[in-house]
């Protein structure tokens, strides 16, 4: 009799003989999972640590916002050493937050005007999504909704592991995907 090692779903404890089968099961049965089995081991980050990473996000997103036609379109940036606990405590209560235990990967999406408003609350900064060039009267901004469509800002956290010389090196990486646009603006006279 040959025994096969099994991989267990961390949510319902069903056993699988292959990692791919576990992924299919998770996608079919736990697609919008919010349960984090190891949540108790994630310490709540300090407010200083949280603000540090929020500020990092704001700086990096503003660097992607431009004023020309070349600055328009899909954008992406990553923070290579983003702590898991910061990501979880920032986004765990959001409607479109989900966690894949098999991949050890989180995702959270914000869409449309409601998503933009919610990100203002999370980041505690009303101007996170745009910057202006006063000399050219142009504005670069994160596009979340226009007269036809709604768009998303998607945050993904995943773990990267490097194995070398009988040692594993692990770090968390946060990636943000979004759409940018640019337009002229006019001064408002009071």
Automatic annotation (TrEMBL):
<dbReference type="GO" id="GO:0008270">
    <property type="term" value="F:zinc ion binding"/>
</dbReference>
<dbReference type="InterPro" id="IPR013087">
    <property type="entry name" value="Znf_C2H2_type"/>
</dbReference>
<keyword id="KW-0862">Zinc</keyword>
<keyword id="KW-0863">Zinc-finger</keyword>
<keyword id="KW-0479">Metal-binding</keyword>
<feature type="domain" description="C2H2-type">
    <location>
        <begin position="7"/>
        <end position="35"/>
    </location>
</feature>
<protein>
    <recommendedName>
        <fullName>C2H2-type domain-containing protein</fullName>
    </recommendedName>
</protein>
């Amino acid at each position: 009799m040959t025994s096969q090692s099994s991989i267990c779903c961390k949510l319902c404890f069903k056993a699988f003989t292959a990692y791919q089968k576990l992924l299919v099961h998770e996608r079919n049965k736990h697609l919008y999972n919010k349960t984090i089995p190891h949540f108790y081991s994630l310490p709540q980050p300090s407010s200083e640590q949280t603000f540090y990473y929020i500020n990092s996000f704001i700086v990096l997103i503003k660097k992607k916002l431009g004023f020309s036609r070349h600055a328009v379109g899909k954008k992406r940036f990553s923070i290579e050493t983003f702590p898991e606990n910061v990501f979880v405590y920032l986004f765990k209560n959001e409607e479109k937050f989900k966690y894949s235990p098999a991949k050890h990967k989180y995702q959270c999406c914000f869409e449309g005007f409601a998503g933009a408003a919610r990100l203002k609350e999370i980041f505690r900064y009303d101007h996170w999504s745009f910057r202006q060039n006063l000399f050219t009267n142009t504005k670069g901004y994160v596009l979340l909704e226009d007269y036809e469509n709604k768009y998303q800002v998607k945050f993904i956290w995943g773990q990267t592991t490097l194995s070398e010389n009988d040692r594993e090196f692990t770090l968390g990486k946060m990636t943000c995907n979004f759409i940018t646009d640019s337009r002229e603006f006019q001064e408002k006279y009071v």
